[in-house]
Write a structure and sequence with these properties.
This protein is of the alpha/beta class and 348 residues long. 30% of the residues lie in helices and 20% in strands. The chain has two domains: 12-238, 3-Layer(aba) Sandwich (Rossmann fold); 256-348, no CATH class. The structure holds adenosine-5'-triphosphate, iron/sulfur cluster and magnesium ion. Iron/sulfur cluster is lined by residues 258, 297, 299-300, 303, 305-306, 310, 315, 336-338. Adenosine-5'-triphosphate (ATP) is lined by residues 21, 36, 38, 56, 58-64, 222, 290. InterPro entries: AAA+_ATPase, ABC_transp_ATP-bind, ABC_transporter-like_ATP-bd, ABC_transporter-like_CS, Oligopep_ABC_C, P-loop_NTPase.
Length: 348
């Protein structure tokens, strides 16, 4: 984790990002009957050298945001500015150049590495698309350097993925993400498939690489406890939107959105006494389908505080009026008409 350089121009600026997948009926004559609103209006910035954690339950749109950031998918609407330039409008050579700078590290180290390719070929694969990044005769040396950087023996270059543990495979995935020397890494649940003991090692590796290579991270997870130790800021997503965002201490110690409070009430607390004192908030019902998003506040069908106003009015992601006058840690954006500060996790 490095201190945020919030005063400089953001390296990434995401505005009004939307991804709707059409729902169709019929085989020959396809008729659109609705849409899966996977991402439904997301705004955030990422400063150089900063880590933004994006957290939310399964299906809330995290991976869809990640794929759009890396230009693997085009948004339905909205813009993604990389150093001021809207990458959603680029094509051809300009798009290729930007793609090099924003690389993805995937969730599952068991399925994201081709089992028939050697580790050397996997890590060096990005050089096939961007040969300018490494001259042909120099590739093997570069790949071995990358293995060393992620804490693996450079002699492993001719081995296959099945010869490695889950943690080692994720290191291979990270080495591949670094091959083109990107400025931004979008890590989509990079430790979710790993044992708890290995998770910490991979997170420490990512933190070390961040300062070594001056990287900016978007770090996605479904569990708030995982992003805490690496994020400068956190954005909490629900059903395709960000519902609360702030610096990590603001979110963990001064959450004001009921959904964030519910998520926090489920994070593991190591101290047994503190665990006893903690209030558990159990959300009723399932997450609504992204094809049928509730009116007003999209969280209202599961919110214990919901009132008539929540059915009618969409809450904006802004500093709630009650906290606006104060400049304390509760004064951060929260999309709730009735935002209230509530400490859920005991102080560390
Ligand atoms: N290509 C697609 N076509 C239709 N719907 C899609 C497509 N990709 C994703 N979705 C839907 O969009 C929603 C968001 O999916 P996404 O994978 O972004 O969620 P997620 O937050 O990454 O979830 P998880 O934690 O399970 O990885 C889900 O309802 C998913 O089913
Ligand atoms: S706006 Fe209403 S329904 Fe939505 S989180 Fe706040 S209290 Fe709950
Ligand atoms: Mg996902």
């Amino acid at each position: 984790m490095t201190p945020a350089t919030a005063t400089t121009e953001p390296i990434l600026e995401v505005t009004g990002l939307v991804k709707h997948y059409p729902l169709t009926r019929g085989i020959l004559f396809k008729k659109q009957i609705g849409a899966v609103k996977a991402v439904d209006g997301v705004d955030f910035t990422l400063a150089k050298g900063e880590t933004l954690g994006i957290v939310g339950e399964s299906g809330c749109g995290k991976s869809t945001v990640a794929r759009m950031l890396c230009n693997l998918e085009r948004p339905t609407a909205g813009s993604i500015r990389f150093k001021g330039e809207d990458i959603t409008k680029l094509s051809g050579r300009a798009l290729k150049a930007v793609r090099r700078n924003i690389q993805m590290v995937f969730q599952d180290p068991y399925t994201s590495l081709n089992p028939r390719m050697t580790v050397g070929d996997i890590i060096g694969e990005p050089y096939d698309i961007h040969p300018e990044a490494a001259p042909k005769g120099d590739r093997r040396r570069r790949v071995q350097e990358l293995l060393d950087v992620v804490g693996l023996d450079p002699e492993y270059v001719n081995r296959y993925p099945h010869q490695f543990s889950g943690g080692q495979r994720q290191r291979i995935g990270i080495a591949r993400g670094l091959a083109l020397r990107p400025e931004v890494i979008v890590a989509d649940e990079p430790v979710s498939a790993l044992d708890v003991s290995v998770q910490a090692q991979v997170i420490n590796l990512l933190a070390r690489l961040q300062s070594e290579f001056d990287l900016s991270y978007v770090f996605i997870a479904h569990d708030l406890s995982i992003v805490r130790h690496i994020s400068d800021r956190v954005a909490v997503m629900y059903l395709g939107r960000i519902v609360e965002t702030g610096r990590d201490a603001e979110i963990y110690d001064h959450p004001t959105h009921p959904y964030t409070q519910a998520l926090l009430s489920a994070v593991p607390v190591p101290d047994p006494e503190a665990r006893e004192q903690r209030e558990r908030i159990i959300l009723s019902g399932d997450v609504p389908s992204p094809t049928n998003i509730p009116s007003g506040c999209r969280f209202r069908t599961r919110c214990w505080k919901a009132q008539e106003r929540c059915v009618r009015e969409v809450p904006a992601l802004a500093v709630p009026a009650v906290f606006r006058a104060a400049s304390g840690p509760a004064a951060h954006p929260s999309a709730c008409h009735f935002a209230e500060e509530k400490r859920v996790v005991p102080a560390e």
